[in-house]
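seq as requested:
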Amino acid sequence: MSAIQTGHQSTFPDHTVDSAPPAARRSLEAIAKNLGYLPVAAARQATSPHLLDGFLKLNAIFESTTLDPLSREVVILTMATRNGCHICVAMHTAKLNSLGADADLIEALRARKPVPDERLEAVRQFTLEVLATAGAVDDATLQGFFAHGYTAQNALEVVLGIGTYTMSTFANRMIQGPVDERLKAFAWEEQHV
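struct tokens:
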């Protein structure tokens, strides 16, 4: 069992299903079954069964929203690149690939640049504006989002995605886990823009 030491001397071990706190074991088993392996991020997040369980529940809820899959991934990658979470960027680049997303879309999201699809750019800009204003977006921002076919429900679902991936990106940065071997092809280096 390996661990990292951060500046504040916290330790986040690479748990296995057997070494994890009992309250985290079912979640780790489900993750390993679903993905076919146990990601280091989940293994380290299991140090707090509550955090791991909270993220998994919120993520399942976010995945069930009325936002289409590409729009959800735009929210996630916008959060991941903004917060410098190399694990999330790699995982969700892989997810976008599995969804058949255009390479130009993926490249733009990873570079924190406008995306070529106008509708998806609207969700990216809306996400950034929700973050910049701590949710206090003005009417023009909302109307601009709605003009691209999104709804009031979608606007609140973006907030759900931001909350879910704030938890994930912050936890992943704290635990300083590596990108799993299976995701090395999607590794990302943060570029300051």
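The chain is about 60% helix and 0% strand.
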